[in-house]
Amino acid sequence: MTQLLPYINQDFGSPVWRIEIDETSTILFVELRNSENKKVAFGAVNLLNGHTNFDDVTTPERWLTGIETAYDGLLLVHNYLSETGPIHKGLIAIDGTTGKTLWSNYTLAFDHLTTNGPVVYNAQIQPRKLFLADIKTGQTLRPYEPVIDTPAYNNISSPLRLPVDLLKELPLPAKPYANTVHYMEHNTYRIVSLHTFFQEQIKQHLYIIDKQGAIVYQDLLNSNIQKMQPEAFVVHKNSLIYLKEKSALIVLHL
What we know:
five-stranded antiparallel beta sheet, elongated, mainly beta, about 55% strand
């Protein structure tokens, strides 16, 4: 029996609010939100070699900002029009290797990502007109053409939520709280995340089980939480990705 070990274990020190994976460069970006300091920062990790490219890049707007998308090795972030509303404002492009800002444009807004790059529009012009943009420069290239600018696809798989009765044969060392688990099969592994309740504490656990039925990896994801958490992990190609105690990014090869 071979035990699995993480090849990425990066604690960012602040809660990870969002994860975005650039399919073209295999860089994983994180959005970090520290509500106490009213600070948003961004990090980038190379999923191929496990190297952390940066872990604390900020923009001039330190709170009303967030991840928009990622493409061709760049992270695209936005500002918010106001603290009380969801409307996005402007675009800033950050190099995924160096963390340096390549360009910014506060009149453009992001619409969606295609296989040819991001589709944007000028927020000051109505009705909205969509254009394909060069993410390296921020320049609009041509009008958006749905036939050739097809939606970008990601290789991310999420677990199913299942009743534990369907998985009676699994060697789970703890009884699931509420009798449900998050479950996925990938390659020869079966991956399970579950909650437990003991002494007034809810905890969230992760188990990886091989084809012989042995637990080859386990971790405590969240301790002493107040309510059941949503799905605890995703699989990107052959990488299992999850967060530990909200601020640590853990990645294993499956």
